[in-house]
Design goal:
It is a single chain. This protein has 273 residues and is mainly beta. The chain has one domain (5-263). Helices cover 8% and strands 49% of the residues. It has helices at residues 5-9, 11-16, 84-87, 159-165; strands spanning 40-47, 50-59, 64-66, 69-80, 91-99, 105-114, 117-126, 131-136, 148-151, 179-186, 189-205, 208-218, 231-236, 243-250, 253-263. The radius of gyration is 18 Å and the shape is globular.
């Protein structure tokens, strides 16, 4: 797996948003009405005291079809700002077609532009056979090559669908210190991690104080993060359950992301002044 510039800038978000609760074959749905077509979330990304990038997630205004299933089309964008562009200019787009009933990924794509590095990737998922077909476009012609086939966990989700799945977890079913088992697929690998739920906490943001659910994934040994509890995330404890902040302690310093703007939410974001 390539450690990209975007992963270094916002590793916490990339890892946490890849996580999805492993409920086996149990059918799920957006029972809270958390997700709204046409919504937009804006984030600032920082290292230390410096804002280094901006990120945006957008749910398309219309519904789409993949594998004969109704889907949300969700795009996540990231672009470096200021001095970070001198180090390596980043302009990434991660997207997915996500089943509106079960929030599994039917198709995902990445268009990565980081310095001189380029990647145009398309992944199609077969949930009946638990397979993912990964295609990469030729850098000169733009034509996609033959797919490489990989086995996946049941009800697999990509990074973007994992981000959306956070929106419908019913935390009323969980107690403080409960562990959620998580699984997903990224690039050429299926994986499983664990996340500990730490209950509710009020955090101070640029928009005001927001009551959030606190989540801490147990990190495996790696060369980026300092300790197994190095990543912490907070998602709003309301009917939206949108990611508000993600922070990470890294060997090269402190990094994170924070919500700075939104529009089109189905439910009013609860801000405690």
């Amino acid at each position: 797996m390539r450690v990209s510039v975007s992963t270094l800038l916002l590793p916490a978000a990339v890892l946490l948003f890849s996580f999805v609760s492993d409920h086996g074959s149990r059918r799920i749905h957006d029972r809270k009405g958390s997700i709204s077509i046409g919504e937009r979330l804006d984030y600032r990304m920082y290292m230390g005291f410096f804002t280094v990038a901006k990120g945006t997630t957008i749910v398309d205004k219309g519904y789409h079809a993949r594998n004969a299933k109704g889907c949300y089309k969700v795009d996540a964008y990231m672009e470096t700002l200021g001095i970070a562009t001198w180090i390596s200019k980043v302009n990434d787009n991660w997207g997915a077609y996500i089943d509106t009933a079960e929030l599994v990924t039917h198709e995902s794509y990445r268009n990565i532009k980081e310095g001189s590095y380029r990647l145009n990737e398309l992944v199609k998922y077969d949930h009946e056979k638990d397979l993912a077909a990964v295609q990469v476009a030729d850098k000169k012609t733009g034509v996609f090559g033959e797919p490489r086939i990989y086995s996946t966990p049941d009800k697999v989700r990509d990074v973007v669908a994992g981000f959306m799945y956070l929106r419908i977890i019913d935390f009323a079913d969980h107690n403080v210190k409960d562990t959620l088992t998580v699984s997903g697929f990224f690039e050429d690998k299926a994986y499983k991690f664990k996340i500990i739920y730490f209950g509710k906490e009020i955090i101070d943001t640029e928009m005001g104080n927001i009551l959030c659910h606190k989540l801490v994934p147990i990190m495996p040994d790696n060369q980026l993060f300092r300790g197994e509890n190095s990543v912490t995330a907070w998602i709003s404890a309301d009917d939206n359950q949108i990611p508000i902040r993600v922070e990470a302690r890294m060997f090269i310093g402190h990094a994170g992301t924070e919500l700075v703007g939104f529009r089109g939410l189905k439910n009013q974001l609860k801000i405690i002044r």
